[in-house]
Amino acid sequence: MDSFNQYWTSLSPLTQSVTFSVLKILGVLFLALLPMVAYSVLAERKISAFIQDRQGPNRVSLPLVGSIPILGPLLTKLGIWQPLADGVKSILKEDFTPSYVRKAYFWLAPAITLVPAFMTVGVIPFGSTLGSQKMVIADLNVGILYTFGIVSLGVYGIVLAGYASNSKYPFLGGIRSTAQMISYELAMGMSVIPVFMIIGKLNLSDIITHQAQHGWMALPFMATQQTFASYLLWPCMIVSFGIFLVSAFAETNRLPFDLPESETELVAGYNTEYSSMKFALFFMGEYASMITASCMMVVLFFGGWSLPFFGLDQPATSIVGGLAHIAIFVAKILFFMVVFIWVRWMLPRFRYDQLMDLGWRRFIPVALANILVTAVVMYFVR
Amino acid sequence: MIVDRKPLSFWERMYLPSIWGGFKITSKHFYNTVFRGKTGGNTLSKGYYPETKWDVAEGYRGAPYLVKDQDGATKCVSCQLCEFVCPPKAIKITPPGADGQTADRKNAEKMPREFEINMLRCIFCGFCQEVCPEEAIFLQKDYSLTGLARGEMIFNKEKLLSLGGTSGGIQKWKHKLEEAKEQEVFPVETK
Asked: Which of A265, B55, B71, B154 has its CA 20 to 30 A from that of B19?
């Protein structure tokens, strides 16, 4: 251990920070994001089953673990091993490329959908500190601008998939997704402007620190010291959060706004022609973007890793505190993931014109008015 | 019929009542499934498929099999009507030919040398049963046909007959035989 410490301190600061960054990237990607994607698919299947009076996946069992007396059958019944079976299935299935597709774009599209969804996580502060390290991969000062920039790249994957498939249903799906994602990006961007007006910073870590002190944006009573100003701004924040939430559904192509995919009308929309691992990449991309959308909601409106009890509103000083903050953040994300999943099995799909109407004629004016009202309130409060 | 489309009230246009209603009904089902175990399988059929087999109702159109008559003879006379009517061309009949084996029941002219149904092609429409003049093929109650290779799913005459069982039915040829015999007796009434 001593020799390791000596070796470690002999490294240059640059090497040390690069090592930590690589560790954080690998940790977040392989220990957090990919398992969360896999298990949110399981959660989706289980919750949908429970809502529809079914049992959901309850058959997959591992050879040795399955024979542990009570635990084994319980895990099997919960479908814990189902993601493993799904993964093996997607890899072993025939990867069929129809003869009429535009091959280069056809191969490129799944990657272009998946990569932006994973890249967004880079600026999300998923915890306060662990040891001496801030728990964020890249602590950008323009965090939110980066997020919106990258998220809007996600649409290209879907459009490219629709174009490259060279058949009518994927093409329609691609067209729909272009219009839908661009419309709701506007509303989404405008809905968060009041948050930055109040906090005055774009860095996501600073946004969380501010909320830890002055109350969460959407729930101002979750604060150690209550302020009158945050209660006055509460209605504006509720409107902001509402628009952000609905836009997030539209941005991630989830029901009730899953028009690019809409199975009942377009077969499977943009991913009709895809099979095996390429289809799985689209699927993972959808769930990864749900996770990043949940992260954004938690960071912007629900205080990130903070909790106004037990001194958890300050950046952690011990390893245990740091882990507790990460756990709080993950718990908040999981709550929004369940909301995403539950809504899918609750609401029917919107018609296309209703979707565009809601985006352009309701949300954008309301978001603009919200910016104005927030400014007026802030003028009188501060 | 004309459905009266009332204009929605402001509250209804807010879409929030629908969301609340949806949440109420989904959480009710979620609660019943998770905490009271009331899934469709548990309430309707007392279990799930591989463990609990399904009760097949009368008139169910399952796999088509050939049947034997009450004497254990093949009823099919190789007329090939079912082969002709079969929409997915799942049935393939090889007739006995000019010098083939004769029918194993009396008075019927012939029976098929080979009778194959490809269960992978069959759509269980029941046309073969409907068209058969001999009541020799019936859609029965088997619904779970599986195999490890495509060849296994082509059922031949022997397999179809053993799975099909017995069905007496109209006994057309038996009556014809009795009629013919009676004709030979010439029951002339004498005073």
From this structure: A265
